[in-house]
Amino acid sequence: MKIDKKQWLYQILFAAITIVLLFPIIFAISNSFKTLEEATNHIWRFIPAAPTLENYRHVFERLPFVRITMNTFLIAFTVTVFKSLTSILAAYAFVFLDFKGKGSLYFVLISTMFIPFTVTMIPNYITVSALGLNDNIWGVALPQLSDALGIFLLRQSMRTVPKSLIEVARMEKIGHARIIRDILLPLVKPAVVSTGIIFFINSWNEYVWPVLILKSKENYTLSLALQMFISSEGGTDFTVAMAVSVTTMIVPLILYMIFQKYIINTFALSGVKG
Amino acid sequence: MKEIVFNQVCKSYDQNQVVKNLNMKVEGGERLILLGPSGCGKSTTLRMIAGLEDITSGDLYLGDKRVNDVESGDRNVSMVFQNYALYPHMTVRQNISYALKVNKFPSDEINSRTSEAIRMLDLTGLEERKPKELSGGQRQRVALARAIVKRADYFLLDEPLSNLDAQLRAYARKELVKIHEQYHQTFVYVTHDQIEAMTVGQKIALMNEGTLQAFDTPQNIYKKPANVFTAKFIGSPPANVVEASYDAGYLYIEGAKMKLPDAWCKVVGSRNRLYFGIRPEDIHLTRAPKDKDYAMKALVRYVENYGNQLGVYFQVKGMEMLAICEDAAPMPGENVYFEPDFDKIHLFDIETTNNLGYPKKLQ
Asked: Would you tell me how many other CB atoms lie within 10 Å of the CB of residue B8?
């Protein structure tokens, strides 16, 4: 295949962008396998001279790391399940049901996407504290159980499903729950999967909200644990911090690699820039 | 018992009234065609029967039951959609049997009904295919099969043949009639194609701008159009309808005059303005009329060849009309006589555009 000059330029540009984006990941992985001495003397060496698992062992010894990973997973899983469920139900209602004030309600809901987190942070903190969920992982999950972005993305995707498919089912006396399960979900599966992955990754990486709610180490999430090793509290052990970084990003990275086709398609269809 | 009754039914979207004061009774087991141009309210009427659209005012009865507030699923109706609405992720067999399964029919019953529908609609061998692997005609048959297995009392079809090519459409029309004759549901069929309406329908409801224009057998709709709209909509080519005036036994078109038979004069009564209508095939263009008093002078402008017939465009003074001639037609530029078959003319009121009726001997 002949590649013209313009395409060459694109290829070079893509390669450059990829290198810039991949650099921090490779940097973290390579330094996490070095001794502190090697990292200090040869920070740009990408293949460690004597690879070691010492940093990972150190992390597991110093922190209840399994517990922290479990916390992060539980929060991300709960948030993903509930957000997906509420988004599916709300999007279904917005697309396939007729009710008064549908347009205005959708507008209000979508406008919440533009309210910065810092505005809702304090009211949410007060509510969660009043519910006695301070320093509790469920306090982290609670305010995230539904979300306008999910409703927006799934609504866009459900709008591509012909209304007559749902009408046929309604005429056959099939209930809404069954319609969603048997007819709608198989058709919008890619969008639901990718939206779920986005929810999971966002929740996994969440930092500001957990830092407000969680106080004790055994309740920490991975991003808070990572912060410990970077801040003065955790000391200056740079290679250990890199080991925590790698552990933190490994799950979202794998998820993204498996489902990237779905994720890209959903954003391309909805016209949202990722 | 399976009749459908519309009693002053109206449907509005905000300020826009799409069905206006509809009164109509479809007899049980009858094939009714809802016919009309795009946007005339025919699909909305069908969707009201299906329970997919709310009724703004008036009453709709299915059998004895007023169904205004009855959910679609409780109306005992099945429907074939224009786009077929097949579930793309299910096979042909699953598409047909899905609703029976969900509604917990015994599996023997599901299998026998599904197999019967598959056999009847010639879908054998395609059972495990998905809709995307089927041709347009096959999809249409799957949609029909899915509607049939429900064995509902009311069978609704929304332009079911519009996505098929002409040859397949002619075949599918016959199939539809065959299906109806086997099950005898009350059959309501929406189309904008008058050939479909004429061939499939036992009754036709012709609609325009949300109003019922005519409700009669295909024969009567064609031969005795209820109003100017019906005369112009039905028939290909449509009827000629021109403004005319009447005075002392003579009909005038743009100043040209001809005598009107006495029986027709009684129908016209004291009116002196009206619409005169005649179908192109009921016109004789002749060089030597039987009686010059009962004919008008005309000038041939243009002749179209339809293969088996000729379409002759001619003018009476300035008014253009079309005649269909079976054999030798006059040449363009030729002066001839326009001689209507008075048994087949139609007169309409100038204000209401309604048919004035026919002389007693014609009825």
From this structure: 11
Q: Could you tell me the fold of the domain covering B4-230?
A: Rossmann fold (3.40.50)
Cβ atoms within 10 A of the Cβ of A133, count? 17
The fold of the B232-362 domain, in CATH, is OB fold (Dihydrolipoamide Acetyltransferase, E2P) (2.40.50)
Find the domain containing A125 and state its range: 65-270
Q: Give the nearest chain A residue to B143 (CA atoms).
A: A168
- At residue B144, the 3 state secondary structure works out as helix
Tell me the angle at which helices A65-96 and A148-158 cross, rounded to the nearest 10 degrees: 50
What was the pLDDT predicted at A229? 75
For position A138, what pLDDT does the model report? Answer: 94
Which residues, 6 or more positions from B125, have their beta carbon under 8 angstroms from its beta carbon?
none
CB A67 within 8 A of CB A133: no
Q: Is the pLDDT of residue A1 over 80?
A: no
Q: With the C-alpha atoms ordered A180, A184, A190, A192, is the resulting torsion angle positive or negative?
A: negative
Residue A153 located in a structural domain? yes
Percent of chain B with pLDDT over 70: 99
Whether B81 sits inside 8 A of A168 (CB atoms) is yes
B residues 64-93 closer than 8 Å to A (CB): 71-75, 77-79, 81-83, 85, 87-89
ipTM attached to this prediction? 0.81
In 3D space, the residue among B269, B280, B272 whose CA is nearest the CA of residue B304 turns out to be: B280
Residue B316 DSSP label? E
Q: Is B31 exposed, middle or buried (0-12, 13-18, 19+ CB in 10 A)?
A: buried
Q: Residue range A170-180: average pLDDT?
A: 93
Give span(s): CATH 3.40.50.300, chain B: 4-230
Residue A273 has pLDDT above 50, yes or no: no
Cis amide linkage into residue B237, ω under 30° from 0: yes
The set of residues, in sequence order, having a beta carbon less than 8 Å from that of B141 and lying 6+ positions away, is B121, B122, B123, B175
* Total domains present in chain A: 1
CB contact (8 A) between residue B98 and residue A164 = no
The string of pLDDT tens digits covering residues A225-263 is: 888 777 655 556 788 888 888 888 888 888 888 887 777
